[in-house]
Amino acid sequence: MFSSHFQLDGERVSTLDKINRKNFLKLRDRSYDLAHKLWWRVRGGGAGNTMPVFIFGAQRSGTTMLGECFGRSPEIMNLGESDPRAFESYSLLDIKTVEKVIEDNPYNFLIFKPLKDGHRANELLEHWPEAKSLWAYRDYADRVNSAVERFGRHPLDVFSNYVSNGSIAWQLESLSAEDSQLLKTMNIERLSVNDGAALMWYIRNRLFYNLGLDQNSRVRLFQYEAFVSNPSIEMKSITEYVGCHFTGKMVENVHSKSLGKRKRPEIASDIENLCEGLREQLDESYRKQCAESTNEEEKDQV
């Protein structure tokens, strides 16, 4: 059972004989978060005046981490993509159902992560004119390593089915004519699992430009590497864009240990060239976004 004393932040937690200290501290932090959420709900929060925030992008790009950072704020609810109130099989439910979820939400902001619905970004933003959104991207090399470990050859199956019988999986929704032709002229059978993951990174992130999201002021790029390297600075900038308050607790567990964690994957040169070109384009858009944010801050200070 439990002993009569414990040291909460010391080298050991003697109160819990059979529970790992790390898990105990996680439980403590979770209880702290829930207490703040409860305080916000009792206080009244933003019931009836909730702003939705959508997180788009390719899987394994830091979207879950970003949602969790938002969720540590007492004024924000992070609705996970497996939450049955708004999602089914990781896809966003119909508009009326989502409207009801937003209407009943007691917080000022509600975070959605409809990664399978990235092709609907414009539709969702048009329906909720007050909404903001972020498009998350990550360097393709680290993303390939992470995606191969999680999804294996599934991307290759998606591409193969499309080329052989025209089957359109959610990953290929709103595929441009140019990208469709690219897939049809590519020998999918020769590709490795690394190639498949890299090509999927390319196809999914092309949506950012194919849908014209780069020209939409209500869509902001989230660069994984910049965020984990400077979490406080980046999160402050993001919260200013969204319109919520920043607290240090939002990023207290963010670290950069995942950067270059594994050996750079071997990718076919033609596919790597595609990815490299798109990454440079995304990086340039991100730098432009940062410059514009800096200019706005300077104007506000004058």
UniProtKB/TrEMBL annotation:
Every Sulfotransferase domain range: 53-264
Cross-referenced Pfam families: Sulfotransfer_1
InterPro entries reported for this sequence: P-loop_NTPase, Sulfotransferase_dom
GO terms, molecular function: sulfotransferase activity
Keyword check for Transcription regulation: no
SUPFAM superfamilies linked: P-loop containing nucleoside triphosphate hydrolases (SSF52540)
Source organism of this protein record: Pseudohalioglobus sediminis
Name of this chain's protein: Sulfotransferase
UniProt KW keywords: Transferase
Keyword Transferase found: yes
